[in-house]
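Page 42, continued from yesterday. The earlier attempt failed because a stray header line got pasted into the input along with the sequence. Redoing it now with the clean sequence only.
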Amino acid sequence: MELEDISAEIKWKIATRTAQTLFINYGLAFWTEGGREIKSIADSLKLGTENAIEVSDTWRLVRMILMGEWEYETLEETEDRVVDCLTHCPMLNIHKETCTPTMNVHHLCQAYCKSAIEALNPRYTHRFSKRMCMGDECCESIIELKKDGP
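This time it went through. Structure tokens are written below.
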């Protein structure tokens, strides 16, 4: 098959789809890499990252340095797992203030947070079970020991 054997309509569909996925994947890659940088900040401040509590405390402090004040309540806290309910998110607030749609915020936020936690200590991971940008009353943030190790 040669290039001229492919219809202009098919080439246009392929190009459009590629451009759309590049935009989405670029954003995810950017935020994932940004999350990894949290480790260098934590190291420069000599912050602890040995267990879930230290990882969470370090993440909270660095997150506030970078993004501003967050409001949260800790629901669970052990050396293997920390669950916070965040009720004030500077990222979500700026979207609301500027009337910017939040349709992909949850993907970018998850990529950023997971990357940051795993950079701080590869034995731990991060996930959200609730998200304000998806209509929940809070962002339920879970830092926990990985099931399969690092």
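Notes: The first helix runs from residue 8 to 36.
Reminder to self: strip header lines before submitting.
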